[in-house]
Automatic annotation (TrEMBL):
Protein name: Vitamin B12 dependent methionine synthase activation subunit
Entry GO MF terms: methionine synthase activity
Segments forming domain AdoMet activation: 79-199
Amino acid sequence: MLEHNEILRYMSIQTDDGTLDTLIDRAEKEVIAASRPRHVSRHIDIAVNMEKGTVNLAGTDIKSRDLSAHLNGCSEGFLFACTLGIGVDSLVKRYSLTELHMLPVVQATAAAYTEYCADYAQQELEMYAAQHNLYLRPRYSPGYGDFQLSCQRFLFDALQISKNIGVSLTDSFLMVPFKSITAVIGVSNDPTQCHINKCMTCTTKNCPFRKEKRINE
C-alpha cells in the first residue's frame, strides 16, 4: 500500500539496497492494525491580502506571507484535520522500550500512513471541487514557513477537533495523538496552481519531501 521510497525519505535515507524491505513490511502491517483513522473538515470563505501578508479564514485574520502566497487566488477552501488515533502512539512507545532498531522504521511508516489517510479523506473535498469545476491546492499546515504553529488553536476551535476526532492540543501546540494533521486547503479555478507538489510554497528546509531541492542545495 505505502511507497517504500516515501518511508525511506521520512527516515532521511535516499537509497536502499532492499535490506529494509522486511522491516518496512512488518512496520506497515502493525501501523495499519493499530490505526483508527478519523477526519473532519469544514468549508470556509477565504480572503487573501497579499499586500499585508494576511489571510482571512472564516472571518479570522491570520498573519502569514507564505500562507498568503499559497492561497492567492482562492476565495474558498477547507479547514481539515485527521488522525491515526492513539493506538499508533502506543505502538511507537512499545518499540521505544523493546526493539529500538525498529523505532525509526515504525515512526517513518506511521508518518507516511498519516499522509496516505489524509489523501484518502481528502477525496470527498476533491469531489466537491470537481463538481464546481474547481481545483484543490495542496494541504498547508501550521508550522510550514511563517504559518505559525500557534495557529493550531484556531484550527482546533474552528473544527472542534478534540470533540470530533479525539485529538488534543498541548500548551506548546503539539497534537496528541502525535500522528495527526491539521491543514488549510485552498480551492481555486486555476488548475496551474493546483497540484500535489508538497513543496509548492513551503520554505521549510528539513522536510523529507524536499529531495530535489536537497540535491541542489
